[in-house]
Amino acid sequence: MRRNTRREVIGPQRPGRTRDGIVDLATIAGLALAWGALLTALILEGGHPADLVLVSPLVLVLGGTLGATCVTVSLEEIRRLPAYLRLGLRAPLMDPLAVVNTMVDFARRARQEGILGLEASARRLENRFMRRGIELVVDGTPSELIREILETDIASMLQRHRRGADLMATAGGFAPTMGIIGTVMGLIHMLKSLSEPGKMGPAIAAAFLATLYGVMLANLFFLPISNKLRYRSEQEAAIYEMIIEGVLAIQSGDNPRMVQMKMLAFLSPDLQNRAARLREENPRETERRAA
């Protein structure tokens, strides 16, 4: 099955760190802005952050959400929850332009040293998908089989990532409901204290905190992280599809410039312009890579 290999790659965000770490500045800034806006609004209304802290509804919403989510998935998926969170918070590890440059280098070496000369360099690649593609070329695997193997890899990756996104979305769906349950429980408790009117106001406020917790967790954490996981997964798959085209171009004996052009066709106009600027700023290096 042939994929739509012309899906556009979205440009890289600026990572705070490189490998294994970590921080996707957009995610961190977005969460900080959302939670900061909430607290700022509270303070402007004359409230205090401590007014939002109450242990019992927090335990109910967090525990109830986690428990209900556990029912819908396997224990193995729950164990992966920290990994999904890290994936949602970390920056993308691959810069599409760096991927293009790497593949162009391999194309140049293939012309100078032959396909078998790529074997040692392929072993040093940290990206497992790219390494596998080059190794398949070195092994003399037919192009159709290479495409089939690598596309199966992409499909498996998308399936794994989809489970993480679905897990977060499920938690985001349960959290508001658990908040409502907590509010109803609080109101029932409050109705038992009608003989003490002085306690009714604080009891009602405490009851509605559960709803607030549920809505906040769903809309300011679980659902945004779920969407970020889906976005990150599509972004990674698009880069992998670009790698497939580069691998097949190397196997077919295309010259480095052609490999570069084929791979750049996957990039957004902004990234293509950035690549053009890099060529203008450092034409010798670009020519050396594409020669």
3D structure, described in words:
The protein is built from twelve helices and no strands. The chain has 291 residues and is mainly alpha-helical. Helix 2 runs parallel beside helix 9, helix 5 runs antiparallel to helix 10 and helix 8 runs antiparallel to helix 9. The longest helix has 52 residues, at 200-251. Residues 1-20 have low confidence and may be disordered.
SS class: mainly alpha
C-alpha-based Rg, rounded: 26 Å
Give the overall form. Answer: elongated
Distance between the termini: 33 Å
**SSE order in H/E notation?**
HHHHHHHHHHHH
Q: Tell me the helix content.
A: over 70%
Summarize it.
The protein is mainly α. The chain has helices spanning 25-44, 55-72, 75-79, 81-89, 96-113, 119-123, 128-138, 143-191, 200-251, 256-264, 269-281, 283-290.
Task: Compile the SSE list and pairings.
Elements: H1 25-44, H2 55-72, H3 75-79, H4 81-89, H5 96-113, H6 119-123, H7 128-138, H8 143-191, H9 200-251, H10 256-264, H11 269-281, H12 283-290
Helix pairs in contact: 1-9, 2-8, 2-9, 4-9, 5-9, 5-10, 7-8, 7-9, 8-9, 9-10, 11-12
Features:
single chain; 291 residues; mainly alpha; 75% helix; elongated; disordered N terminus
